[in-house]
Amino acid sequence: MRALDETDLHILELLAEDARRPFSDISAEVGLSAPAVSDRIDRLSEEGIIRRFTVDLDQSTLSGGTPVLVRLTVRPEFVDEVRDALRAADPVQHLFVAADGEVTAHARLDGGSVRAQLDELVDLSRVRDYEVSLVESAEWTPTVNGTGFALECAECGNTVTSEGESARIGGSLYHFCCSSCLGRFEDRYDRLEAGANDD
């Protein structure tokens, strides 16, 4: 696996500002040809660094619910389940999971009972407590910080350098700082998959 260089980071910054920016504009900014920029963007996508190109809508200009911030204190064994349910829910715009397992979602809910709407989004029996706040304004500014931007090992959390490895496991691309972490991750994945198939 090749480490990200300054050109990769600059391309990511430009795409974060405007994902529809033409390759010719990016090439003029970074000093590469448009085909070379295209190749780099393809590589960044293949490595899972760029997951998708999307549209950033100003929801305040559109109708469709009241913006709220929902903080859920989730039972530890259900954090992944609650996260996945909220990730798939149409009203949820941004989702955060804290190290302590608290799940926070920025969503747009329609009028009516908040509890009933939350219960449609996620099984509230998995939740110890929740708090809902009205959002006055929200901004989302993705940035790429050249000094702090690095891939994180899926196994141990260390920074992935040029000696790292990448592997597609269960349909997802993961990055690892070393072959030992890759091996441990694959072993655990295989055990979990075998246990799921036994049920």
Within CATH, the superfamily of the largest domain carries the name Lrp/AsnC effector binding domain/regulation of amino acid metabolism (RAM) domain
Helical/strand content category: alpha+beta
Strand fraction equals 15-25%
Question: Any idea of the CATH class of the largest domain?
Answer: Alpha Beta
> Order of strands side by side in the largest beta sheet?
2-3-1-4
* Rg over C-alpha atoms, rounded to the nearest angstrom: 20 Å
The largest sheet is: 4 strands, antiparallel
Distance between the termini: 37 Å
- Binned, the helix content reads 25-40%
Please sum up the structure shown.
The protein contains six helices and six strands; from the N terminus they run αααβαββαβββα. With 199 residues, the protein is α+β, with helices and mostly antiparallel strands.
Tell me what the structure shows.
This protein is α+β, with helices and mostly antiparallel strands and 199 residues long. It is built from six helices and six strands; from the N terminus they run αααβαββαβββα. It has a four-stranded antiparallel beta sheet, covered by helices on one side. Strands 5-6 form a two-stranded antiparallel sheet. The longest helix has 20 residues, at 179-198. The radius of gyration is 20 Å and the shape is flat. The mean pLDDT is 83. This is HTH-type transcriptional regulator LrpC. Residues 4-67 form the HTH asnC-type domain.
